[in-house]
What we know:
A: 272 residues, mainly alpha, B: alpha+beta, 12 helices, 57% helix
Amino acid sequence: MKKSFIALPLLMSLAPLAAFAATAPLDLVGPVSDYKIYVTEEIGELVTQTQAFTDAINKGDLAAARQLYAPTRVHYEAIEPIAELFSDLDASIDSRVDDHEKGVTAEDFTGFHRIEYALFAQNSTQGLEALTAKLNADVNDLKTRVDGLTFPPEKVVGGAAALLEEVAATKISGEEDRYSHTDLYDFQGNIDGAKKIVDLFRGQIGQQDQAFLAKVDKNFATVNKILAKYKTQDGGFETYDKVKDNDRKALVGPVNTLAEDLSMLRGKLGLN
Amino acid sequence: MSNPTPQSAPPSRALRWGVAGSVVVMIAAGGLFYYASQLAATKRQVNHNEIAVTIHAHACEPNALTVPAGRASFRIINRSDRAVEWEILDGVLVVEERENIAPGLSQVINANLQPGDYAITCGLLSNPRGTLHVTPTAESDAQAKAKPSMVAFIGPLSEFRVYLSGQGGALIKAAAALQQAIDTGDLAQAQALYAPAREAYQRLAPAAQRLAELDNAINARADYFEKREQDPAFSGFHRLEYSLFQQRSLDGLAPVAQRLVADVTTLKQQLLAQSLPPEQLVSIVVRNLNSLADVRAVSGEEERYSHIDLNGFAANLQVARKVVDLMRPLLTKSAADLLPNIDRALDAFDAELNGLKVDNHYTRYDSVTDDQRKQIADKAKAVAAALDGIDPALGLSGLQ
Lengths: 272, 400
């Protein structure tokens, strides 16, 4: 009792000093490795669920395949800062039709969005064997490569901003999942992936700038609250065309502010 | 107005203050102007240093870039009609990128580039890749020779912590399987599951041995106890080993196995909670290999009842390799001359152990001759000696 009585004012008087101390590099080892463990788990889910998703396609079960499309992709969206480091796999797993000069007929247009086109625009599971086999091979390849990758700390910390930029650029417009309109799953995946990074480095960020952390938390809460409005009973999301104009507008501010704020994270943790 | 001169003192004082004040304001304004013009100049400077790249529908212009090493800013102007990306690639790995650059707009990419040749993703995936040649500078040459900073170790140390987490999980699983075999009274199965559990432990051993008391509960030999095998405090793997392989009995093992599972669960938690400074990442492996060379290889004392020592040595070698692989990029950059010797020593030790396999299984250690044991010790010692060169070469002990 007596000790804490003395310790409290002492701590309070030291707190402003602590704010100036730079983050010790070794303090980042815990969060960076915990992030890899998180990414590894997410990729494990991606591999398992991609298998189930493509099994449904290969059995010709269109309804099941459509249902599994978005929940499977979420595991890719959450870990994009790392997944995107492998440019060849990112192109073959997640490229959009716009990335290909010949559009949907481009031979190298493969992956989730090509399959999405078949399932949601053509309403068909026919003739997708090569695409489903390639998607499975690609996510397994991604898993092997991520396992062997030493995560660059600046990419991990910078990943939070990258995810929010992704949201700002492709999710609010609804351009990512243009055939299925399941953008809100990806949206939530990006937000969860960014929030995970902030949570893992929470202690170190808080040491540097408590007010920054409070502001970031508040904006995450605002975004999550709007997204929650569109959650369905089965744990999924409404299609993006159901999102009201005022909600789309209400998302823009906090998403852009988060993208801007999180872009300062690397500097705050001494990784610039 | 009637007495202008004598009474002018107070107003003149006010005037003087006023003049002084305006001088201060002028100086301040001048200062601000100077500051603003400097700021503008700095901005112009930054803009001046930007390298402009225009993405057209089918290629970038310029498509071949050469820049000096260090920080570079690229302004990417999208003149195609789609939202596209521009990436700097090192092999297939993205160094820096900007996605979704809207048509008609531009974005700046800042990169800190090491000397070398990079490829550029330029808009559409079918567009030809651009090239980026980064030339060395006096500064980059100096950096390449400099010893790494503490920040450079975040990656390898994080990766080692991931390894501890994975192997820790594997150890818990293996110990739990062993416990289950003991609980169900299956002696043959328990004997079979002892080796994989030990292998999992031996991959963690260099790190586990930092936790003295806990490690003793898991790994102490009978010699450490007053009444040896009969001592009630004798616990852990070797207590199980004694009953499984010497007494060939499961009597009284259930609580020992239960405690082992609890202890290895705590071990994983503790290993993840401990901070490991860079110099220890190497020194714990050296210590482990030295104990192998000096004590364990010659005597075979570690697995004296089961004689599965070779499995443990191979697992020790695996973690040594893991650490070398984690340090490899730093060694390549700052102490490349050490690597051939390290790799040779690792391969020689590996070959020695592999030579003692029959039908893909390591032979029992009681059939390994004295001469072979000496060979194992020598090879392990050579790895330890090679690894000992890392600390001074990278300056691990004096890191800032």
